[in-house]
């Protein structure tokens, strides 16, 4: 089964898609958040084109495990997505996924946390265009690994 990963944002939404066997997650695209109905319809189109079986949506929690203010929007979006697509939408925590995506895109070392003297491998404009899709791929990868899909 193929999965769709989503990194929800009030302005932009990152999209990732898994491999057919559900073992790998790949950044797909970044779409503009045009409101619940329009955005859900756009994601429905993506799910149809990619033969998606389930959707994994990032759950925004703070460091204490409490919902961030945007979770209210995300919950409404989840309900709209389920209604529009007819697919199950599963939450996966998204703590620090954007930071991790930025590090990977810039070619920075993730561990150990030492001063990094490597030059960035991607320009700032390209990074802004793709960072949300990369974060969605990290959310999806985390789900796939935890669930041994």
Walkthrough of the structure:
The chain is an alpha/beta fold and 149 residues long. The chain has one domain: 2-Layer Sandwich (Nucleotidyltransferase, domain 5), CATH 3.30.420.140. It has four helices and five strands, in the order βββαβαβαα. The chain has helices at residues 36-49, 71-85, 97-106, 124-146, and strands at residues 2-7, 12-18, 25-32, 52-59, 88-93. The protein has a five-stranded mixed beta sheet with strand order 3-2-1-4-5, sandwiched between helices. A hairpin with a 4-residue loop joins β1 and β2. α1 (36-49) crosses α2 and α3 (97-106) crosses α4. The mean pLDDT is 84.
Q: Could you give the order of strands across the largest sheet?
A: 3-2-1-4-5
Largest sheet: 5 strands, mixed
Radius of gyration: 15 Å
SS strand fraction:
15-25%
Helical amount among residues, as a percent range? 40-55%
Could you say what the CATH topology is called?
Nucleotidyltransferase, domain 5
């Amino acid at each position: 089964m193929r999965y769709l990963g989503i990194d929800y944002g009030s302005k932009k939404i990152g999209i990732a898609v898994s491999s057919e066997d559900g073992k790998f997650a790949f950044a797909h695209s970044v779409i503009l958040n045009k409101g619940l109905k329009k955005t859900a319809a756009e994601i429905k189109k993506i799910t149809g084109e990619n033969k998606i079986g389930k959707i994994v949506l990032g759950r925004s929690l703070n460091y204490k495990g409490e919902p961030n203010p945007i979770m209210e929007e995300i919950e409404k979006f989840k309900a709209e997505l389920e209604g529009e697509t007819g697919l199950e939408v599963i939450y996966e925590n998204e703590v620090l996924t954007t930071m991790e995506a930025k590090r990977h895109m810039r070619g920075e070392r993730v561990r150990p946390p030492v001063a990094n003297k490597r030059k960035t491998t991607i320009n700032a404009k390209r990074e802004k265009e793709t960072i949300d899709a990369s974060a969605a791929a990290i959310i999806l990868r985390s789900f796939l690994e935890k669930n041994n899909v």
